[in-house]
Amino acid sequence: APLRGGAPTSSSPLPIADPDAPPTPLDSDATVTLKLFITYGIENGEVVATGPTVAFGGDDLARAVRLKRVGDKKDNVWGAEVKVPLGEASIEYHYVIKSRDTRYESRICPRSVSIAGLPAGSTVDVRDGFRSAKYYVLATSCFSRAIFGRGNSPENARTENKLVETGDLSWPELGEGQTAVRLHVFAPRVSAGHSVWVRGNTEGLGKWSKEKMCPMVHIGGRIYVGQVVVDKADKNVEFKLAVVDNAGSVVCEEKDTHKLSIAPGSNSHITQDVSFVYPNPTYKTAGVALPVSGIRSEASTGIGEFLDLKKVADWCSKTGLQIIQILPINDSGEDPSPYSASSSFALHPSYVTPIAVAGYYSSKMGLDMSGITGWATSLVEKLNHNKKIDYARVLGEKQKIMDAIYDLVGRDQILADPGFQEWLSASESWVKVYAAFKVQLVKEKSFNNKWFDTSCWSKGVSETEAIVSHHSEDYDKVVRVYFTQYHLHLQLLEASQYAASNGVALKGDLPIGVTRCSADVWAEPHLFKLDKNCGAPGNPEQDWGFPPYNWDAMHKDGCSWWRRRLSHMEQYFHAYRIDHVLGFFRMWEIPKHGHGGSYHPNGGLREQGLRNLRAIQTASNMMICGEDLGNVPPEVGPVLLELGILGLKIQRWCDGKTWNYGYLTVAASSCHDCSPCRLWWNQNWGEAERFFNEFVGQGGCPGGPPDWVSQKIIKMHCESSALVTINPIQDLIDMWNSLRSDNPKNDMINIPGSTDGCWVWRCHKRMEDLIKEEKFNAFIKKMNTDAKRGATY
Fold first, then answer.
1. pTM of this prediction?
2. What is the C-alpha separation between 425 and 497, in angstroms, rounded?
3. CA pair distance 49, 242, nearest whole angstrom
4. How far apart are CA 661 and CA 282, in angstroms?
5. How many beta carbons lie within 10 A of that of residue 247, not counting itself?
6. Mean pLDDT across 317-329
7. Closest to 321 (Cα-Cα) out of 712, 793, 787
């Protein structure tokens, strides 16, 4: 059987440090030298290397290692020597370009070099390449955990490259005249169960034999490491990289060879940065956008539920779609707007599936839940025929049945459940405050006419422990809040893991603000400017009602609130959309009880955006997409590109030339804040006619439009140059005349500036019915396949 996972072999030693072996005694002053080299074209400025260790300046740019030009200026090679203590297993660092602007490497894949096994006084030639975020975005969890990783199951891991820490790698002992070469290969596009191998022209690389290919190990971030010992007489090492499937067959190999020269005087230890060059050089993917609330299934209780996402994932598998984009799903109370959350952590109770909760206690505790099951079934029959969401009724009915389940199981049994206790312990940092907030909110509403502003409440967050204590008169209410949140967590996690196991990523939505009546503002008011409101300039001026972030206060503790929030999101999501990403650069701030706002800050936008967005980017490994529509300052685009954050293009709001979109773009035919394409066509005839003449050009502009025009619009997005195209399910369904809704006006989700009829949309087609539409699904899949969307290799 082919060798797997990077175990040492006689031809390709890749030793892994033995964790049980006693440490080698070291001189406390022993060091090794890292001789850094990187190629980067820059006229005026410098390249520096920084990292957490003292040798690299402790992440302080002012004390970073400064590289100097090596050789001719036209070669654009920079170099520096850094002495590091041999006691460190591995050294982390990254490059920064200091010119007119400061440019950072991608932090998605941390750069590190192992020094374990090196003799004291050794020198390592470290030949690096600048890691641009444009390409390293494919290492985010959207791809590594879902689209390529398919849930990272133990079954697939058996045939994948062995996952190790960088510090676990050890350099080999060398004989006279030998050189150890270590390859650091960035290969993001590796399907689940597949592995990366290398072959080349030296004895250690198998003399080009496919039967003697050398395995590599995975050090995380889709960086694979291979190591070979060569004689210094081998002045040129040539090699190719390949991907092997779980049956041992090569499924993808580079066309051209990489070349590594070992010049006279080179050091005996060399590391080389390499990127896998795929035959299909540009990866692209596609997805569907729909709010959870709008999903309709055979089991829906008048609203879409988290477990319905599993059916959406099944449909995606049939159509070649790989991303499900949803709207925010946090608790917003009785407000149907998903952007009015009362907590940045708690999930909305309306998305729970009661019959699944009943099944949990029936299977786990052997309880008779038949009465609850019958009740839940009757609710489906009662509410699922509704064309629009009746929020008040859905919330009321679900609250009743969840209370009934709670009463039937009993508080003591619920609390004694080990799974519940494990979740409660892991969620303690937010769920206690949230439960206290929910209990106190009911009380404030009964006597406080300013209940909607937590700064005016009679009790502060310091009362949390008293409210949630098991001695409290409110303790039963508190546990009911825990109970509902626990089952929402289980059901969303189940849906997310199911989607990922099918190669489908779940993309969430991060609202730009939180309401004054929220657990976040109640708990940490210093993080918000409570004397101001966010909004937008104009006539009339827009006042959104929620307070701006106090970024200076947030950065004092390393943006802990953001880190907690995004770490919590990452349990469920593989990517997320930042609503109004411009707010991370500047915000229109209006006096709380007045008008006439202004932008803050009014200068230094690049630095402000970099500072804020880098803080949240490093809090998780999710792919980030920014909603950068509207009056966009010139600093925004370059910052998003530099950080590997995708921007958004709505075809009707730009020049419409989808083939000219930047790679780091989400291309969309429409979105939840505008009319779907079919309605837009009917309501904006002049614009539709211009679009038809420029992009279709088949005679007179037809009304309707017919389904072949809808197909043309989606096809343009599939064939676009954007990494991602995500189109609303309404626009996808409109490509098939027999599946269209009766009236496109019923397909609107939100009308900005209005509350009438907003956020109550439900898809007119059940997911089970869409899954059965074989011809339609095959049509979408072919459209994606023809455009090479979703082609891993």
1. 0.95
2. 22
3. 31
4. 14
5. 9
6. 98
7. 787
